[in-house]
Amino acid sequence: MKNKCTFFSLFTTLLNFCVSSAELTVLILPQNLQKLRASMDKQCSQEEEEEEEEEKMDDDSENSQLLQLMARHTQLKDLLHAHHIIGTMFKYQGKGLCASLTTAYEGVYLETYNVEIDLKPRLRISRHNVPPFIPLSSLAEQSNMQTDIRSFLDTLSKHLNAFAGRKQQLKLVKELHKSVEVLESNVLCSVLVMLLTLPGEKSTVLCTLNYTDHTRLLPSGVHFECKDKALPDAPEWKKNCSLLMETPVHKALMTMKKNETIL
Ligand SMILES: *[C@@H]1O[C@H](CO)[C@@H](O)[C@H](O)[C@H]1NC(C)=O
Ligand SMILES: *[C@@H]1O[C@H](CO)[C@@H](O)[C@H](O)[C@H]1NC(C)=O
Ligand SMILES: *[C@@H]1O[C@H](CO)[C@@H](O)[C@H](O)[C@H]1NC(C)=O
């Protein structure tokens, strides 16, 4: 119920945004969007299909056709699922296309980013409100925006959602864990240095989380530093390290607190 309300208000906001845009010509309805995606799919994978066609000739048993259909079905389901999660909306506007990329973390909608793309003479990002520390133009290049606009938007959405999620985790750490001191973080939330206090003897552990893969919500490296040089190598602390690698940081700290590992 709550989710529905959030979605409805989000939708209303987006709708207002669209309607208030003077340049708006067509709001793409979901059915049309699917057609558009399908036709984009076709264009992008024409070459692949030609290859597949040849393979089919070789291996034309009913079983393999069924398997292919099942694979295609799964592929389509994944695609729809992905688009559902990332909540990308398109509309035509002026010379091009405006994509709205919604970010969310743990069922909470966060910022929505807009990217306007001119379609002619070649695809070009004209306006956007993506933060400057997200490498928009190199993402466009790496994901071949010219030939595969959807892959570009999916990649961008991954980066934006991971950033929004890491930022939200940092906010939750500050809100929920008053005894944890955040010493350092950066705008991309790809580094987090915290001072953890151990119960009893009041000694502290410096904990560094390093999010090298910017499309992920979880760190790729965890590092402990302590006066007791042996501590980070103790098997228990290795387990705490795994915990921090596998669990969003605010939740990992909750477990460590319950466990009386930290104050
Ligand atoms: C981040 O972690 C990787 C792998 O553990 C390491 O090589 C790199 O030096 C770390 N960077 C920072 C800034 O800590
Ligand atoms: C983390 O380390 C503490 C202290 O050594 C230990 O008691 C606890 O079991 C460890 N946590 C996990 C999840 O293993
Ligand atoms: C800490 O938590 C882990 C996993 O939740 C558990 O296996 C471990 O026994 C706990 N340690 C203590 C000291 O409570």
TrEMBL record:
<feature type="region of interest" description="Disordered">
    <location>
        <begin position="40"/>
        <end position="63"/>
    </location>
</feature>
<protein>
    <recommendedName>
        <fullName>Centromere protein O</fullName>
    </recommendedName>
</protein>
<keyword id="KW-0539">Nucleus</keyword>
<dbReference type="Pfam" id="PF09496">
    <property type="entry name" value="CENP-O"/>
</dbReference>
<feature type="signal peptide">
    <location>
        <begin position="1"/>
        <end position="22"/>
    </location>
</feature>
<dbReference type="InterPro" id="IPR018464">
    <property type="entry name" value="CENP-O"/>
</dbReference>
<keyword id="KW-0158">Chromosome</keyword>
<keyword id="KW-0732">Signal</keyword>
<feature type="compositionally biased region" description="Acidic residues">
    <location>
        <begin position="46"/>
        <end position="62"/>
    </location>
</feature>
<keyword id="KW-0137">Centromere</keyword>
<dbReference type="GO" id="GO:0031511">
    <property type="term" value="C:Mis6-Sim4 complex"/>
</dbReference>
<dbReference type="GO" id="GO:0005634">
    <property type="term" value="C:nucleus"/>
</dbReference>
<comment type="similarity">
    <text>Belongs to the CENP-O/MCM21 family.</text>
</comment>
